[in-house]
């Protein structure tokens, strides 16, 4: 499957992405994890050593210039719109264990309505290759929007999962993401409630997200917060949290089978 995880900043989408990566990898699946959030933290969430030393693809100026035939640090002029990217996953990914590899994409510089620049062109083509051409599981930790996805790639994203916490701002962001996703053809959209303190929080999300597919709820867990502070994978979580995460993935797998993917 190709899975994109998104949500308002701070809701825990990177934590969920890391759990999904580890869950499938522990069951023998080869997983390519993609950190497509400008505020890149997935390497830390996966517990990769020396995570802060990983250079995002968007900041590899010489590579961007070589592949797009542009001049580093300049804007305007001509550059290649279909750069070669099929060799980059092997060259630029960082391995974690036997079944996990990570690529850190980095942010696309924006001004006004967006940036049509060499960096954005390279990232766009790379994302298209990862989703359309790679014969392996891809889990993408995205920013709050879905800018990394276009109409061409969205049809091959099997699931868009939006993480939402109890609160109006988080719910509003989830609603905007859902509409944007539907606008570009995404039909398989699931929601995961995070930082759930009690049944009142569950009831709130069920009410405001009525009619949408809720894959499950992750309880508020100090052990997850502590792991985040330490910059490591949340290996030790409460039994309640572990059961909730297992249930979310199983619900996703069952929904995928029912939808044909």
CATH-derived topology: Rossmann fold
At the first level of CATH, the class is: Alpha Beta
Low-pLDDT segments, ≥5 res = 110-114
What does the overall shape look like?
Answer: globular
Task: Classify the secondary structure makeup into a structural class.
Answer: alpha/beta
**Intertermini distance:** 7 Å
CATH architecture term: 3-Layer(aba) Sandwich
DSSP E strands, number: 8
Bin the helical content. 40-55%
Strand order of the biggest β-sheet: 3-4-2-5-1-6-7-8
- Count of helical segments? 10
Element string (H = helix, E = strand)? EHEHHHEEHEHEHEHEHH
Strand content: 15-25%
- Please indicate the count of domains: 1
- Radius of gyration (Å): 18 Å
Compact overview of the structure:
The chain has 261 residues and is an alpha/beta fold.
Task: Kindly describe this structure.
- It is a single chain.
- The chain has a single domain, classed as P-loop containing nucleotide triphosphate hydrolases (Rossmann fold, 3-Layer(aba) Sandwich), CATH 3.40.50.300.
- The protein has an 8-stranded mixed beta sheet, with helices on both faces.
- It is globular and about 55 Å long.
- α3 crosses α5.
- α7 links the parallel β6 and β7.
- The protein starts with a strand and ends with a helix.
- The chain has 261 residues and is an alpha/beta fold.
- It is built from 10 helices and 8 strands.
